[in-house]
Specification:
two-stranded antiparallel sheet, about 120 residues, elongated, alpha+beta, single chain, 4 helices
Length: about 120
Amino acid sequence: MDTEVESGNRRGRPNYSPEFKHRLAVAACERGVSVSKLAQDHGINTNMLFKWRRDLRAGLLTGPATSETRLLPVVLKPSSPSAKPASGAASGGSIEITIADATVRVCAGADAALLLLVLQSLRA
């Protein structure tokens, strides 16, 4: 049993390291793995491991930082005065949302209900 636990909570609850959570969540996502058996083998509650797996799939549980983690350069393009939209006109901006392995591009004027449905299905 390889369980990484730190104490430090006033209620006596264990604090598991992010690396431990990530490693077990990845193992729980593998085909043919019994999440209950994996949790039992590591002495943790099955529901906790299911939550870690959901968090991993939703992109909320990240792996350990590696030496390859680095900042990327950002380049800002100067805007020309004539490129400003007329007063009262909506901006044509867009955003990208990345959850786990999926990227959703949302353009201005997107239907909020449809976007909510898409994001909920990605988190499932």
